[in-house]
Design brief:
The protein has about 475 residues and is an alpha/beta fold. The chain folds into three domains: about 160 residues, Rossmann fold, CATH 3.40.50; about 130 residues, Orthogonal Bundle (Arc Repressor Mutant, subunit A); about 120 residues, Trna Endonuclease, Chain: A, domain 1 (3-Layer(aba) Sandwich), CATH 3.40.1350. Strand 9 and strand 10 form a beta hairpin. Helix 9 crosses helix 16 and helix 9 packs across helix 19. It starts with 7 loop residues before the first helix and ends in a 7-residue tail after the last helix. The relative contact order is 0.09. GO terms for molecular function: ATP binding.
């Protein structure tokens, strides 16, 4: 297990700020468990003069006193300063310090003037300073109110804004040092996703089933109630968000379906879906040939693989897994898991498409659906080529019927190249368990058909793609 992976660009940008000869402000935000604190600590390895304060939900006086105590280890003179945020921060700025205020929203909860204090400092007092202020926060709404939105006090003052997201697939798999086969990597991604905290709980020496049993299904598992904790920390009225996520996980993906399943009025859904989208828990998808704003076929999907797994298999199960004990995974999860993970395999195959087709300039990847027709992987190119693919994450070889189905659905896909000319179609089949001889024979005879194993997809993703 590695201690820290990826985030190379973020580290480089932070180091540039630390080395600046001017006063700088960095704002680092993203939902919980994504490794924001670990990123800052890693960035400061070569800097022993930084002041790092992890805020807690305490009164302003206690917060300020504890901050002074933390700062005095490096800057003893700060203890002589009057206990006032403006004076204390001003003193450290004169010392050209690096000042990290982690969980900044907890400070603002107790002292709403703090963003305005920092604003005044940057506007009027830091012309001669080379200090760097780093504000870190998990409450996205409060970080927006304090520093990111147009009406926030610190809007326009930050030199760097880092929106921390899940690790991409290849980086996430670095946690396991090649301990898993390509298929096991996709299965692990389909359950745990790219959140560092979740990946740290996975033991490479144990099977996927054992990891799921011990960390998620067991009521004593470290991740058993994780989505519940995250949502209650991030949201003021979590009940409706739970209902929406449960509905989506259960197959209600359109707004009408979600409204009908949850009982939430259709015209009220938008604000909840937008909030879940800002937390990067839910995405709105439309067929690749349509515009999101105009499409009548949009679908909402749970973006975070772990949340998707939890709401599909765990939420609302009560004591069922406890009663089954160690048999819970084999009885309730394992039979469904390949089909469940197939969605993640489709997303990963889309992400790999540009690497798998290097001779084509692919401008857009995604899926397409219309009535009963659906295509798992679609790539639109700058030329006149349409790349389409069918994905199967099953435990048997892919047969010729999958190719016939793909060709039939492709005939219904309406896409005209920008040139206005006739399109050329290229077919791709993606399979976990290889291909039947009839498919391999067809691929050998046809120039427009290529076959990809799960190993091909994983290799293509190695350092080349963004998190799906």
């Amino acid at each position: 297990m590695v201690d820290f992976v990826n985030r190379t660009e973020e580290l480089s940008r932070l180091h540039s700020l630390y080395e600046s000869e001017e006063a700088e402000l960095a704002v680092i935000f993203g939902r919980r468990r994504l490794g924001k604190t670990a990123l800052v600590k890693q960035s400061l390895e070569a800097y022993d003069d930084a002041v790092v304060y992890q805020a807690k939900q305490k009164t302003t006086d206690l917060q300020l006193q504890q901050f002074i105590d933390a700062a005095s280890d490096t800057y003893p003179g700060v203890k002589r300063i009057r206990e006032d945020w403006e004076d204390v921060l001003g003193y450290l700025a004169e010392e050209d310090a690096i000042i990290v205020l982690d969980e900044f929203p907890y400070l603002v909860e107790q002292d709403e003037s703090l963003p305005s204090v920092l604003q005044a400092m940057f506007d009027h007092e830091l012309d001669e300073s080379a200090a760097t202020f780093v504000l870190v926060g998990s409450s996205i709404s409060m970080m927006e109110e304090a520093a990111l939105l147009g009406n926030s006090p610190l809007y326009g003052r930050s030199s760097l804004k880092l929106d921390i997201r899940q690790l991409p697939f290849a980086a996430a798999m670095e946690f396991f040092d090649d301990a898993y086969t390509p298929a096991e990597q996709v299965l692990t991604w389909g359950v745990f996703g790219g959140v560092p905290y979740y990946l740290e709980e996975v033991s490479p020496g144990a099977s996927l089933g054992e990891n799921i049993q011990e960390t998620i299904l067991s009521r004593h598992g470290t991740l058993h109630d994780e989505p519940d904790y995250v949502l209650r920390m991030e949201l003021r009225e979590p009940t409706r968000y739970f209902s929406i996520l449960e509905a989506i996980a259960g197959g209600s993906t359109s707004r009408n379906e979600i409204a009908g399943t949850t009982g939430i009025a259709y015209n009220q859904l938008s604000k909840y879906l937008k909030r879940l989208s800002r937390l990067r828990l839910v995405d709105q998808h439309v067929p690749i040939t349509e515009q999101k704003e105009r499409s009548k076929r949009s679908q909402y999907r749970i973006r975070d693989p772990f949340f998707r797994f939890w709401f599909h298999f765990v939420y609302g199960t009560g004591e069922q897994y406890d009663e089954l004990g160690i048999d819970a995974y084999e009885t309730l999860i394992e039979p469904e898991l390949p089909d469940f993970v197939s969605r993640s395999f489709e997303d990963l195959s889309c992400s790999a498409l540009r690497t798998l087709y290097p001779d084509h300039t692919i401008t857009q990847t995604g899926q397409w659906w219309y009535d009963d027709h659906e295509i798992d992987v679609v790539g639109l190119t700058t030329a006149e080529t349409l790349i389409v693919g069918e994905c199967k994450f099953q435990q048997s070889p892919l047969g010729y019927d999958a190719l016939s189905k793909l060709e039939s659905h492709t005939a219904e896909l309406r896409w005209t190249p920008d040139s206005g000319g006739d399109r050329t179609e290229r077919y791709a089949l993606f399979s976990r368990s290889g291909f039947k001889s009839s498919v391999e024979e067809a691929a050998a005879e046809r120039d427009d058909l290529r076959l990809f194993t799960v190993g091909d997809v994983v290799t293509a993703l190695d350092g080349s793609e963004s998190a799906p």
